[in-house]
Amino acid sequence: MDDNKVAADEARRAAQHASVKSQIEGNVNAEIKGQARIATGGDQERVEQVAGELRGRAIDETVAMEHAVARSRGAARTSQFVDFGFYIIYALLTIRLVLALIAARSSSGFVQFINGITYPLYIPFRGIVPSPTAEGGFTLALPIIIAIAVYMLVHVGVNGLLRLAAHRKTTI
Length: 172
Prior knowledge:
Elements: H1 2-37, H2 41-101, H3 109-122, H4 142-166
Helix pairs in contact: 2-3, 2-4
């Protein structure tokens, strides 16, 4: 029986020891949590410094983004004016082409007006290739078609440059 008493006594002491140990661990953990919530003066200064740096970076990024948006808006507005100018060129050259195709009288006021306006646009392409003529005076003015194609390529190139200027890559 003494052995049973000793074993029971040991079991009771081990249980008491585990209870006291867990109670002490709980108290220590609660104390650590409490101290962690209370920032010291040095910690508070460091927190404010880091917060200030983050705030400054956020402001700098916002300002940079606003500049990029403004630059994109300016390029988009310029692109609209460029598009409008090229559309006028396309329309005038197309009218000249149609008038040549239908053999419009060159003595007509409208034909002279269109030829006068489009002359500076057409002259660099005049004589590049011969213009085939059909019976009745109908002419396929290939230089006008070439001029329209070249102006389209220039239009695409100018818009591409504007897009590059508007969407500059930034380093991260």
